[in-house]
Design a protein that fits this description.
2,3-Dihydroxybiphenyl 1,2-Dioxygenase, domain 1, homodimer, alpha+beta
Chain lengths: 142, 142
């Protein structure tokens, strides 16, 4: 059902500086950059490793593009740090339904657009041991 | 240098309940359980996926065994949630030295004992964008 750690999302104030840190100090390569206007974030995906389901694990660096975005509010409350964990699946809608059947609130009734053409749904952190959790179906073209 | 997301460490109050949640709701298998008296934690490793460096990615669930352990203090301050991210390397001492050369404070001058016979070193979260970061060299027997 969930076959990999797809990414760990990290909130930061300065995307360029944080990207440079992870690239220069840890050696991770930038795989992708985009702006997600719906979520109010500018983001960089750093590829860490391939996974045995044929996909990969990334770090996702997130900088808010506006003060009322969820990531801006997270930064104001918590400062920089881990924002969420995302697990990969081949069927985001089916997996969201199965997880919802266990009593976990699925925040996106219809999967929405994530990084690199993926389709995603968030789960309520209070139902997941305090962890904001995302499930991700990668794009076929990824 | 760092070739995988080795694990994401999650602090919890009730290890049995949190393990059951991840197993039953997300389908992750328990790979290992142990108590690390030095760190004051009881822990469960849940295997999520294999990685293309020949190792694997895990979730590490952490319950404190005493009130003065770092994880107990984290829970008192932040509540349940993500505690740290760990990246895998084939040479923890060499990688710690290289990362320290970039100005990141390495909290363990000598690598110490981690999960499943691994050797680990922690990096200062203030030097890693607010993320408590661990580097891990897996045991040959893992």
């Amino acid at each position: 059902m969930l076959t990999r750690i797809d990414h760990v999302g990290i909130a930061c104030h300065d995307l360029a500086a944080t990207t440079a840190f992870y690239r220069d100090t840890f050696g991770f390569e930038v795989a992708h950059e985009e702006v997600n206007e719906e979520q109010g974030v500018r983001e960089v995906m750093l590829r860490v490793n391939g996974t045995d389901d044929g996909e990969a694990s990334y770090l996702q660096l997130l900088e808010p593009t506006r003060d009322d975005s969820p990531v801006a509010k997270f930064l104001a409350r918590n400062g920089e740090g881990v924002h969420h964990i995302a697990f990969g699946t081949s069927d985001v809608a089916g997996t969201a339904g199965a997880i919802g059947g266990h009593g976990v609130r699925v925040l996106d009734a219809q999967p929405r657009a994530g990084s690199m053409g993926s389709r995603i749904a968030f789960l309520h952190p209070k139902d997941c041991g305090g962890v904001l959790t995302e499930i991700v179906q990668a794009s076929d073209r990824r």
